Amino acid sequence: MSEILVLVEQVEGEVKKVTLELLTLARTLGTPAAVWAGPGFTPEAKARLAEYGAEKIYVAASSDIVDYVVAPKAELLAQLATSADAVLVAATAEGKEIAGRLAIKTDSGVITDAVGLSEGFVADQSIFGGGINVHAKVRKGTPVIAVRPNSTAPVASAGAGAEEEVSVTLSDAAKATRVVERVKQEKGARPELTEAAIVVSGGRGVGSAENFSVIEGLADALGAAVGASRAATDAGWYPHQFQVGQTGKTVSPQLYIAAGISGAIQHRAGMQTAKTIVAINKDPEAPIFELADYGVVGDLHQVVPQLTEEVQKRK
Ligand code: FAD
To answer: Cross-referenced SMART domains, in alphabetical order (predicted)?
Structure first.
């Protein structure tokens, strides 16, 4: 079977869920080989990657790889991609930048924001702000495919997890931008927005920063992440890092609840690949209802607390 490289996303040695999803996807198409970029590889990480099917784990432990911004990871993958059939990365901001750089280096093509992948590396992709769904295929070189988190449910199936050390010699160009400081973000109790299986988002209809507690209440009852429309973040009601959409984060959860959000194309661009969409809006003509699987026409200040109460009762 052919080898499919999966770039590992990790935080302080803990393998992120999206990597397990990519390994699961890779297993359906060939032999998954995980690529660990940077120091901090642990026996726990090795066990986790093997548990989800990594037959091989390439470990490039040089701190150079994480001391410079993005380019070293693309150079590492370019070195390994010569013998691979495809490269999968997470469609995060960094993953997509790596994918683009890698495709240039390997004279190949790149597909970003894939939400599915089938035989022959045909990717399901959502384009033009989510207006059109296409099947896309790279026709030249080793396909580089950035897959959205939550597109596939991770399923464990043991692989050999054979470790292989890799040394990489970085070009001067890859060392152009050095990381000078890393500031640790406070890790809240809620799941990370782009990785969450459930997202509850609020828009201008929420009405104020204080009212966002209604959105947070439902999110906490469901174990969900909180998102916001740009109208809400621009108004200063919720921090910008939680903005969903074209100029915010792209999410692809199992369930997306949009409360007081009209459904502008720029918002849809960041959430329309969610498996199930629920919209709560007092305007029956709001465009979000065209996209929603379930819609509630009503005042979110009445509907959301009732929903929260109902969820809590059923726990
Ligand atoms: P509105 O469009 O004002 O909608 C508010 C909705 O709330 C209405 O449908 C209303 O009926 C409903 N409502 C009001 N009160 C209640 C209530 N009590 N109960 C229930 N419903 C209620 N937007 C993003 O979200 N993300 C982006 O990344 C993004 N990027 C952009 C990039 C560019 C280049 C541009 C030009 C725009 C971008 N926008 C983005 C902005 C986007 O066009 C919309 O303006 C924005 O999404 C609107 O946010 P909203 O739906 O919260 O507000």
So the answer is: ETF (SM00893)
Beta strands, E only, 20-136? 31-37, 56-60, 86-90, 110-118, 122-127, 132-136
Q: Is 232 in the pocket of ligand 1 (CB under 6 A)?
A: yes
Cβ of residue 130 lying under 6 Å from some atom of ligand 1: no
> Quick check: CB of 234 below 6 Å from ligand 1?
no
Q: Tell how far the Cα of 111 is from the centroid of ligand 1, in angstroms.
A: 28
ipTM above 0.90, yes or no: yes
Q: Is 215 in the pocket of ligand 1 (CB under 6 A)?
A: no
Query: Each residue of 24-42: pLDDT tens digit?
Result: 999 999 999 999 999 999 9
Between the alpha carbon of residue 266 and those of residues 189, 194, 287, the distances in Å are 28, 17, 12
Q: What is the pLDDT of residues 121-166, one digit of tens each?
A: 999 987 776 677 899 999 999 999 999 888 888 999 999 999 999 9
